[in-house]
Design goal:
elongated; 7 helices; mainly alpha; 206 residues
Amino acid sequence: MGLKDLSVEDFVQALSSKEPTPGGGSAAASTGAMGVGLLLMTAKFLEESPVVLSFIADLEVQKKHLIHLIDEDAKSFNGYMDAIHLPKTTDEEKAIRSRKMQEALQYAATIPYQTILACAKCIPIMEYLEKEVKKNMISDLGSGAAMLESAIHCAFLNVLINVSSLKDKQKAQELLQETNQIREGAVKIFTKVFQRVEALLASPNA
């Protein structure tokens, strides 16, 4: 049974333990999946149309991918730990261990990157939903935006910690720049949507 199969209580207990996994990367993916779930709920209450049905299908894809990343993040860290524990007696063993560690780190950095990308892919749909959502569900849309933004912030920290140990600095810099570009653009939009929802709900005529 994977992390994604745990109850909410058991997953939170796992996060609270002294075990290294699950950690921030898995938490980011789960937060993103819940954010997408809230967008899906608001979409499913709209009148059915080819556009809405297409958006629902796209959101389901991102939700499924984020749920998959909950376990994949933990697996990537465990792969790095396996590499650390490889034998290092001879020069050949040391070289193999070092290479495996770097490969594991590089892969581990791609998981939170995927979380950020999946969350960002929801933006066009969220912007459509903001215009069409039923007024009594606008808080759910705003909550989804906030969770997706939070997931991106959390995932970005996990990209940072992994690329910081990569020896291939060019590859590390390329991944970091691409990730940060997506993050900055997405966060601005999620923040603005949340602020608009907040202002709408705070208005006496809301």
